[in-house]
Amino acid sequence: MRTKIVAGNWKMNNDKNESKALIKHLKKALKNEPLENTRVIVAPTFVNLSSSIKTAKDSKVEVVAQNMHQAKNGAYTGEISAQMLKAIGIKTVILGHSERRTYFNETDASLAEKVDAVLENNLETIFCFGELLEDRKSDTHFAVVESQLKNALFHLEADAWKSVVLAYEPVWAIGTGETASAEQAQEMHAYIRSIIEKQYNKEVADAVSILYGGSVKPANAKEIFSKPDVDGGLIGGAALNVADFTGIINAI
Ligand code: PEP
User: Which percentage of the chain shows pLDDT scores above 70?
Assistant: First the structure.
């Protein structure tokens, strides 16, 4: 059975105290939830990772990083390496978020290097990708998604996929209030699984958790998560509010 995941990407929100408070609320809300085969993840900013890990200790809440640099160390002012994240207890790193691609010029090629650095350090990645509105309008969304996966992930050995979680996030649905329909999400997730099967095998394709991201809210989460190839969600805005986020967790 594939692992279900609800992951909250806090982006550049929540200072140290706000991060701690949100995790404490979440811990309390999840204390008596069975959460069988389900992971609950939050991604605070770099500067709040250590304190968030401490706050989340011995709970059902996992703390992950939003990004990292691909180099081991060196003259990369303002950057953080996989080793540095690992040293403070981080086990998972989000890579390839559309905001990183758009505002910080991340490319499939640089993301392939980041993925390699994550895996060399025995970390896991939640790898984000998805088409722009113009891609969907011009009916090239399947080709765009295929090329994003091919260029950044298909050089991996089959075994490495045990450390990869995918997050399909159509860019037109991120932070816009516009959600892909459950059918659109299912259609793309099934397609993603089919190209992974073609590149690798059915075992790899069946095992990888594929999250949907893009304006997931408590009101639409249940329908989206009910689709057979949707294994959970990467949540932005709604992850900043404990009632909304726990509503989404309950939907899974
Ligand atoms: C995201 O940033 O990954 C995201 C899905 O944001 P939102 O839920 O706000 O659309």
Answer: 100
* Atom 7 of ligand 1, residue of closest alpha carbon: 236
Distances from the Cα of 37 to the Cα of 34, 42, 89, 94, 230, angstroms:
9, 17, 22, 20, 14
Enclosing H/E stretch for 153? helix 141-153
Q: Name 219's Cβ contacts closer than 8 Å, sequence gap at least 6.
A: none
**Ligand 1 centroid from CA 74, angstroms:** 32
Task: State the pLDDT at residue 242.
Answer: 94
Please tell me the distance between residue 220's alpha carbon and the centre of ligand 1 in angstroms: 14
CB 163 within 8 A of CB 118: yes
The alpha carbon of residue 109 and the mean position of all alpha carbons in its chain are separated, in whole angstroms, by 19
End-to-end CA distance of the chain: 14
Mean pLDDT of 130-136: 95
DSSP, collapsed to helix, strand or coil, labels residue 43 as strand
pLDDT in tens, 194-228: 999 999 999 999 999 999 999 999 999 999 999 99
Taking the C-alpha atoms of residue 108 and residue 128, their distance in angstroms, rounded to an integer, is 11
